[in-house]
Amino acid sequence: xxxxxxxxxxxxxxxxxxxxxxxxxxxxxxxxxxxxxxxxxxxxxxxxxxxxxxxxxxxxxxxxxxxxxxxxxxxxxxxxxxxxxxxxxxxxxxxxxxxxxxxxxxxxxxxxxxxxxxxxxxxxxxxxxxxxxxxxxxxxxxxxxxxxxxxxxxxxxxxxxxxxxxxxxxxxxxxxxxxxxxxxxxxxxxxxxxxxxxxxxxxxxxxxxxxxxxxxxxxxxxxxxxxxxxxxxxxxxxxxxxxxxxxxxxxxxxxxxxxxxxxxxxxxxxxxxxxxxxxxxxxxxxxxxxxxxxxxxxxxxxxxxxxxxxxxxxxxxxxxxxxxxxxxxxxxxxxxxxxxxxxxxxxxxxxxxxxxxxxxxxxxxxxxxxxxxxxxxxxxxxxxx
Length: 385
Ligand code: GLA
Fold this sequence. Notes:
With about 375 residues, the chain is α+β, with helices and mostly antiparallel strands. Helix content is about 40%, strand content about 20%. The chain has a domain at about 1-195: Ribosomal Protein S5, domain 2 (2-Layer Sandwich), CATH 3.30.230.
């Protein structure tokens, strides 16, 4: 294995363990996870691989094929503000959960095939892969769900991105030929089969990079909190309610006028998006792909107009997709502000749609977008060393 020799070149010995964790495409349920709502991701065949072995002492040495070398002391992980924080954060979180010494000296070699800053969850793939690697190397015996929780805590607390559970859960618990309906209130995961569903996933990169920690993500989180607090203050949700998930569509009219217009629209997006996730699950069960597509496109309109996280390049990609008769529906996937769009298309027309979107975008933007035909993939796990 080529990667094996890369590890040997970096550390002068063979790895004892190798793991992988995939990126994800979220079909629908965007910006709902941190308000305890519903999401519907699919783990995809682009993943991050970590080769690892225990080392004497307490140094964790890391070589990333993309980012270079870094190291830290497993006893004192301290945020530095770069990619290494995703590794340090996992070590820190495991130490807090299992006691100091859960992670000690180790060598890690990392390579990612998840396009970065594309909204395909490259950071969660990294965090989940590192969590699996430490689990294997130090014999921690944690379940995939627990390792997803570790990766989530690492990114939200240690790295400082106040994100929800969507990405690490999709990466750790994904299943081939399934999307996962995740209820972010109780973290319940229901796999929904798509193996027999005649649909292909095309993902088009707008060329606009997005950086979660620097973007307006935290602002949206705060706006949603403000909407929820206002709804609670006037009794639109039960007194013991904890999130916008508890606001019924019927309460929205009451909320208007009590909060600023943007804050009202953020709430309207979250409420309508949760309903769209349920509706997509129903339409999938009925094999009604036209309806699935309409719901995706309605989700895009809501992200564009109410949540205001789309950008003109993403709108254009969606518009081009929706113009093609073999496209069921299109929407941005991930947090927005750039990154990728998802197009659900008839499999026999995947190539034609790819050409259509690339051409149309190139003509108007002067730039040919990368279009990936992604397949569903298993969640994180071991690979042969
Ligand atoms: C990012 C976050 C997720 C989720 C999405 C938006 O990917 O990491 O937790 O909030 O944005 O749906």
